[in-house]
Each structure stands twice: as C-alpha cells, then as structure tokens.
Amino acid sequence: MLHGLGIYPPWGEPMYEPGLNILAFSYRTVYTILRGYITAALAPHAPMRHVVICGIIGSVVATAGAIAAIAMADLGPDWYPIALAVTGLPCVWLGGVLHRHREAGRG
To answer: pTM for the complete prediction?
Structure first.
C-alpha cells in the first residue's frame, strides 16, 4: 500500500531513507506483537508455549531473509533485516504477555 501511495519507492528499488526504514520497522513490530497476542488468544492450552514456538519459527524465517537480503546487497541498509530477525522473538513474546495480563484481569 505504501508503495502504491508513493511513500515508498517503487517495488524493486532499494530503500535507503532512514525514516522510511524506521516506518517499516515500526509497523512490522506492531504486527509481530499482535501476532503474539493472537497466537496466545487462539492457543487451546499453554498459550505462551505456542507464542514461543511461533516466535522461534518467525526468527528462523527472518534470519534466512536477512541472510538473503544482505547477500543481494542493494535492497537497503543491512540493519533493517537484522533488526527484524533479532526483535521477532521478543516482540511476539510481548504480545503473548499482553494477552496473559488481559486474561488475568478478567478472572
């Protein structure tokens, strides 16, 4: 959507503008926290175990993506895919903790 609105450069062009990378990192962080919350909410039992498994899978995929992005060299700054890989598990865990606290407040 942000590419179509002209906020981000067209698909296939590198994005080196720090502000745009911070924007992308910010909304991906929010989505990752939300993913942890939803995973905990849908877990039939042991919600935090499901959240951690989801986080590990996401971290493995993000690490593979970071390796591929850095190897391609001209997609943008290296810190961005590395930051996604490093923060994935803590963010999804935070979403699970937020769900746990909300559920504790109800009971």
So the answer is: 0.88
Phi, psi (rounded to 5 degrees) for 64:
-60, -40
Could you give the CA distance from residue 40 to residue 33 in angstroms, rounded to a whole number? Answer: 11
Nearest to 27 by CA among 80, 77, 65, 97: 80
Q: Is residue 50 part of a domain?
A: yes
Note down the domain range covering 74.
18-106
- How many independent structural domains does the chain possess? 1
Tell me which amino acid residue 38 is. I
Residues 13/32, Cβ–Cβ less than 8 Å: no
Is 47 in contact with 95 (CB distance < 8 Å)?
Answer: no
Give tens-digit pLDDT for 42-82: 998 999 999 999 999 999 999 999 999 999 878 889 999 99
